[in-house]
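Notes from the 1:1 (GR / supervisor)

We went over the backlog. Supervisor wanted to see one worked example end to end before approving the batch request, so GR pasted a single chain during the call. The sequence is below; no edits were made to it. Supervisor asked that the structure be written out right there so they could see what the output format looks like.
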Amino acid sequence: MKQAAVIIGAGIGGLSAARALKRHGWSVVVLEQSPGLPASGTMLGMWPAALEALGRLGVMEASRRTDGWAHIAAANTSTRLWTPSGRTLLTVPGGAELHLVSRPALLAALAQDVDITFSTHVLESGQISDADLVVGADGTFSRTRQEIFGARFAARPLGAVAWRGTVQASVPEYGETWAPGALFGITPAGPQSTNWYASLRSGQTFAGPHLPHLQRYFGSWHQGVRHLLDQIDEDTILHHGLFETPKLASLFRGRTVLVGDAAHAMAPFLGRGACEAIIDGATLGQCVALAPSVEAGLAAYNKARRKRTQRLVLSSRLMGQFAMLDTGAAPRNAVMAAAGSIARIITPKPPGRP
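Structure output shown during the call:
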């Protein structure tokens, strides 16, 4: 008889786990309280390990040539670090190809051939008690995490908020602008579209409309930021507070295991959340398939993923704190500018270039 898994949540981590388990012969059902998969969302950068995991999940190159996926050549990926006045502190040359996918396109690819029951609350489902494995993939504010580890493991606020979105326009340069208590980022999203994100140190979220807030805090910054702000459509702005998951001693208890943001919600400053959720799902399926028992498989998954993802949670938080420094911003900028000057001096020049 096939082993059966119930997955709570049809996000990136949950659907990745569902595909992985199905490919290893499990019977899988995904329970999702929303009425359907989201139709909107920004572009997500896929790191090499996440692309490799997508291959193992059966999301192959053919899928990645459909709408919603983009590839940007290495020559076009150089980025800058600016101050709000427009002074360049650092230029990072291109060198790595960028693979991008919109959240809806990624979820649609992962959901292919997966049994999803929408508009379902887990407590109203009788399928949990009969499952050999329960996967908590219910996001940052995971009820599964709190039920198995207690209320003290609820997601904790980081004292910052973020806005993000995509504009249907290209920009001359990509990069981030750092200021005390705030930052603004501009990244590629395709040939004629651009991702943007902004963060502000604040203990509360802001009510819409959001474009006036963005203009208030960032409208006096350099021309690159002002040009981007002029392209934003109010209806496309996403806004939320930033949270992270407290450090867990284990990612599983009994036959229940956590993946994605339920296991390791992190600040967005490293751009790794979606990638790590994909890797979680692929790793979980492989570990359970190769182990002599579900318990042994969950222990192997925990060993492979817990410490690594917890380091990323810490690194993401520290990166945001470093970017939005109050005290110490001036010496930090001086060091970054000096590092950029040294890099320009020692970088070999192509033949024929001065």
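Supervisor's comment: The two ends are 70 Å apart (CA to CA).
Batch request approved.
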